[in-house]
């Protein structure tokens, strides 16, 4: 997130923070589907609000926040198609023993493709290293 914001600030661009709620989380619980969906949306709103506040405080950037529901790769592609101003996709790679994360792993396995450049930022970079890259 810091890399994307610093890059946007340095290039005169903007930041879109996207949160995708997987649809599979709701289908097995027909009786409580709407409650679970509302709770997932509240969680997404909270996470995005905190992330947006961090960007406001650290870099003075006012990001756009978007919440979508569906398959992550498909929803990222849909967002890119709908917002023609999106010029680069920035992903964070985790450093857990399970791997860098499902989206980054799918990119490595080529099961996800995006029509714009993708930058993957390792989790272990310091703020100084991120600033130097942006």
UniProtKB/TrEMBL annotation:
InterPro entries, per database record: UspA
Entry-linked Pfam families: Usp (PF00582)
Residue span, UspA domain: 3-122
Protein name in the entry: Nucleotide-binding universal stress UspA family protein
Species name: Mycoplana dimorpha
Biological classification of the source: Bacteria, Pseudomonadati, Pseudomonadota, Alphaproteobacteria, Hyphomicrobiales
